[in-house]
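#struct-help
A.M.: can someone run this one for me? Single chain, 159 residues.
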Amino acid sequence: MLSSPKILTGTLLGIGFLPKAPGTWASAATLPLLYFSWLLSPMWGIPAFAFIAIILSLWAADHNIHEFGDDPPEFVMDECAGQALVFVPVALLHSSFPDLFHLFTGFFFFRVFDILKPFGVDRLQKLPGKFGILGDDLLAGLYATICTELILTLKATLF
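D.P.: on it. Structure tokens below:
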């Protein structure tokens, strides 16, 4: 099954086949990929990674939908894209790669918004096909970005 490039991409090299919480595993697996992207280019690595993850998600989604059904749990490239979006401000606002607190906070908020789907995230998920699959993760990523940056600002102000 992993012989198809679109399945391999959509499942994030097979992570989507993990039996429990494949979206959470994919989000966690994205963090070291972001680190290596930042090492390659501190200013453009993470934004480029997020953009590529979005494009790859759109490219692979239809094939994964055909193979596994509507919004399949095996398709986790959307989680990769949403999780990457959380750390785009790293390149723009921070001079170094996030510390563990920043990574954990961004991961935590993304998973909360992606799982609970508040504030319109659930409505975006209802868009047809690949746009619904990706849209809810991008909005969850945007909300997680805002919350993460607020927490980091509060931490810097108070401590």
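A.M.: thanks! Residues 105 and 151 are 8 Å apart (CA to CA).
D.P.: also worth noting: Helices lie at 5-10, 22-40, 45-68, 77-86, 88-93, 100-116, 121-125, 129-158.
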